[in-house]
Amino acid sequence: MHNSLYKRNFAMLLGDAIAFGLAVTFASTTTVLPDFIRTLTGSQVVVGLFSTATSGAWLLPQLFYARFLMNKSRKKPYLILGTAIGRPFYFLYAAALWCGLRDPRLAVVFLFVAQVMFMASDSLASVAWFDVYAKAIPVQRRGRMIGIAQFVRGVLSFGVGALITLLLSDKGPAFPQNYAVIIGAAGICLMLSFLFITQIREPDEPIEQEPPAWKEYLPNLLRTLRADDVFRRLLLVRLLAGVDTLALYFYITFARDVLQLAPATVGVYNTVQTVGSILASVGLGVVSERWGSQRVIQIATALNVMAPLLGLGLYLAGAPGTPAIAVLYGWTFVVVGVTLSAAMLGWFNYALELSPAGRRPVYMGLFNTSAGILIVLPPLGGWLQEQTSYGVLFGVTAIVLVLAHVLTWRLPARRSP
Q1: How many Cβ atoms from other residues are within 10 Å of residue 89's Cβ?
Q2: CA–CA distance, 63 with 124 (Å, rounded to integer)
Q3: How does DSSP classify residue 236?
Q4: What angle do CA 269, 194, 358 make, to 5 degrees?
Q5: Does residue 208 sit within a domain?
Q6: Per-residue pLDDT, 225
């Protein structure tokens, strides 16, 4: 690859990653949107169902998109198509909130529709994006690019967190216009990401001539799993680590329900989560480049256990919502920021290193769609909390995450040329 082409693509992918990261900071599925849904409905199960709809719309279609893209020499047109279809829905929803959407049931239904449309179209974009990214950025530089993107996004996200805190405080617009501004800002960032994507120049790479027929496609996927022992291990560990979603979306409701923290704490914890992301971008970016993505996975899973353990400890102690407790509980969101940032630096980069060039869409589609098994966990977590307690929810999550971390030590170092 020519050096000038590499530099251009590095810059465009960097801009895309920063803008997209800011969008998901505004419309955070771990702080902002769960708190919004809980305010509208008062239901933990609905919060969990929203996460299921989000994950399912993004994960489940990817195997079908992967087959479609296998014999396409250029993936960028499909990357542009996927981003162009879904991203305006955030603007539409924000406009509806601002202009008078007041019925809580309709507000929730329309939010589900907007999120599913965004995620389903982004599912196509993601399969294409990973292929373009792997072509454009050498494996030795991927940790650097993602690390820089996450660091810059993290620094800018301090401003995002401060803005969210202001908007959700008594000084901000009335409900739900305050959330309309937040979601609209996410839409602006998504469109900026789209502009960067249009400027990428996709390198050439050999492709498969024809995708297998549908009746052969699924058996072909099973043969891939049987033939690649390391990939099978990666999927198993990733699924176990993904059990963190049983509790992930309820850390913020625990803060509001049990610790009795103020609504503006949502913005503060969004900022705190950003701190975790910045720490991860610097530290784990170096780890990825020097020692490989499997080390990133090991560190992230070890830290991830701490979030439910801290919640469990505060629950058992009957901790009051004092400023000191609010600060201590903030560590949960530092950990969440680290583990979310580790997704690209660890899990996805490791999967890309295992993926043969001509079959990359299949590997990444299989890697992502297999995680669709986990989409039942957030509503199950909401049901478990409502039927038992936050203590049971956090305890069950912690046990499985310990097992996931232990199994990460069976993932060998692996780098493609």
Answers
A1: 20
A2: 10
A3: H
A4: 105
A5: no
A6: 79
Determine the pLDDT at residue 303: 92
Question: How far apart are the C-alpha atoms of 138 and 201, rounded to whole Å?
Answer: 15
pTM over 0.85: no
Helix extents (H) in 3-43: 3-26, 32-41
Give me the pLDDT at residue 186, please.
93
Structurally, the chain folds into a number of domains equal to 1
Task: Tell whether 414 is covered by a domain.
Answer: no
Alpha carbons 66 and 279: distance in angstroms, whole number: 33
Virtual torsion, Cα 275, 334, 94, 256, nearest 10 deg? -130
The span from the CA of 153 to the CA of 196, in Å, is 15
Domain contains 295: yes
Distance between CA atoms of residues 121 and 303, nearest Å: 32
Q: Residue for token digits 């999967």? A: 351
Decide if 70 contacts 213 (C-beta within 8 A). no
Over residues 357-362, mean pLDDT: 72
Vertex 394: Cα angle to 276 and 109 (nearest 5): 80
Helix axes 323-342, 265-291, angle to 10 degrees: 40
CATH of the domain at 187: 1.20.1250.20
The verdict on residue 118 lying in a domain is: yes
What letter does residue 70 receive in the DSSP assignment? Answer: T
